[in-house]
């Protein structure tokens, strides 16, 4: 009977973590470039009271055994990198990635980190940066005399300078992709960091080597489906209630057993 108590407790703890994941998804429903998390469960070890295939008392083979499970656990929370909705903003420095890939930005520690958030800005030196001032890599500087900025689908950045009509190319945006993007480490602020599980970044230009293309004046919204997450909330609540009911039932049976009289 004690196994039922502990098994149900593991189920309640797993659903508590599930609620944390779903709540974070809902909280980021309007976060640019956000990718939702999915939680994965595994069953725990089993008590083998009788092993399948062993001979029984009359010398015949038991076709099935007796196994009692000991609960469930959370094994992973993986990012789901499906494409979010593309929304037009009209801002010349808003860039959406249509397809696979990440922008590269320089972190204060000197390492390169990655993002799907294309809401870029220009700092006082004319450099393209994120909302937190992190430099886009490779660095691109917009001349102060530029009157128009054009960013092509292939990442080519060109400007029209004052008094001129012919565009001048000033750089090209690069993207990276990973063999296992779900292995990237989320560090907040719409940023990801490389890990051993993600593999090394594969650098290329937009539209080449399986990388997505760029759309100027657009942003990729969160890929969180509110209706789906609301359904998940209901499922979590019911699963938590059922596990708590199992604990109550096991406790009631224990109470009956301890009050038996000779």
Write out key terms for the chains shown:
262 residues; alpha+beta; 2 domains; three-stranded antiparallel β-sheet; 2 helices; 20 strands; elongated
If you compute it from the alpha carbons, what radius of gyration comes out, rounded to the nearest whole angstrom? 27 Å
Beta-strand percentage?
25-35%
The coarse silhouette is elongated
Binned, the helix content reads 10-25%
Number of strands: 20
Order of helices and strands: HEEEEEEEEEEEEEEEEEEEEH
Mean pLDDT: 93
Low-confidence regions? none
In angstroms, what separates the terminal alpha carbons? 21 Å
Count of domains: 2
Sketch the major β-sheet. Answer: 3 strands, antiparallel
Label the structural class.
alpha+beta
Protein architecture, described:
With 262 residues, this protein is α+β, with helices and mostly antiparallel strands. The chain has 2 domains: 2-81 and 225-258, no CATH class; 86-220, no CATH class. It contains 2 helices and 20 strands. It has helices at residues 2-27, 226-258, and strands at 37-43, 46-50, 66-69, 72-79, 86-88, 95-98, 103-106, 112-115, 121-122, 128-129, 135-137, 146-151, 156-161, 168-172, 175-177, 185-188, 191-193, 202-204, 213-216, 218-220. The strands form 9 sheets. It has a 3-stranded antiparallel beta sheet, with no helix packed on it. The protein has a 3-stranded antiparallel beta sheet with strand order 12-13-14, with no helix packed on it. A two-stranded antiparallel sheet has the order 1-4. A hairpin with a 5-residue loop joins strand 9 and strand 10 (128-129). Helix 1 (2-27) runs antiparallel to helix 2. It is elongated and about 100 Å long. The two termini are 21 Å apart. The model has no long low-confidence stretch (mean pLDDT 93).
């Amino acid at each position: 009977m004690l196994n039922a108590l502990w098994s149900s407790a593991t189920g309640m703890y797993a659903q508590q973590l599930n609620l944390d994941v779903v709540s974070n998804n809902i909280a980021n429903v309007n976060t640019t470039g956000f990718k939702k998390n999915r939680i994965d469960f595994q069953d725990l070890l089993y008590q083998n009271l009788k092993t399948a295939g062993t001979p029984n008392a009359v010398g015949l083979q038991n076709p099935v055994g007796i196994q009692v499970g000991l609960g469930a656990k959370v094994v992973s929370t993986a990012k789901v990198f499906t494409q979010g909705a593309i929304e037009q903003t009209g801002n010349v420095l808003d860039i959406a990635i249509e397809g696979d890939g990440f922008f590269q930005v320089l972190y204060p520690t000197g390492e390169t980190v990655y993002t799907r958030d294309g809401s870029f800005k220009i700092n006082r030196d004319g450099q393209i940066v994120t909302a937190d001032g992190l430099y886009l890599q490779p660095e691109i500087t917009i001349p102060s005399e530029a009157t128009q900025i054009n960013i092509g689908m292939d990442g080519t950045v060109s400007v029209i300078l004052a008094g001129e009509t012919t565009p001048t190319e000033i750089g090209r945006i690069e993207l990276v992709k990973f063999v296992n993007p779900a292995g990237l480490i989320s560090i907040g602020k719409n940023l990801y960091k490389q890990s051993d599980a993600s593999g090394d970044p594969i650098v290329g230009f937009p539209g080449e080597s399986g990388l997505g293309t760029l759309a100027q004046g657009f942003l990729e919204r969160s890929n969180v489906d509110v209706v789906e997450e609301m359904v998940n909330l209901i499922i979590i609540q019911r699963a938590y209630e059922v596990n708590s009911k199992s604990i109550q039932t096991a406790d009631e049976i224990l109470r009956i057993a301890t009050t038996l009289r000779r």
